[in-house]
Specification:
By secondary structure, the chain is mostly helical. It has 2 helices and no strands. Helix content is 84%, strand content 0%.
């Protein structure tokens, strides 16, 4: 396998895994909460995702 292709596949796989993990964390955090606490949970999840991506 070409090293460039391998690096591309690995990058896409890692990005996909992180995206799925972020969606699952938010889904599990939001399920069963009241409407007034959802905004705080979603804000906190967005801050964590921004920190992981390096935009904070």
């Amino acid at each position: 396998m070409d090293p460039v292709l391998g690096a591309l596949i690995a990058t896409v796989a890692v990005t996909l895994i992180i995206a799925v993990a972020a969606v699952l964390v938010v889904r599990f955090a939001v399920s069963g909460t009241e409407g007034r606490t959802r905004a705080a949970i979603l804000t906190a999840a967005a801050e964590v995702i921004r920190a992981i991506r390096g935009r904070r």
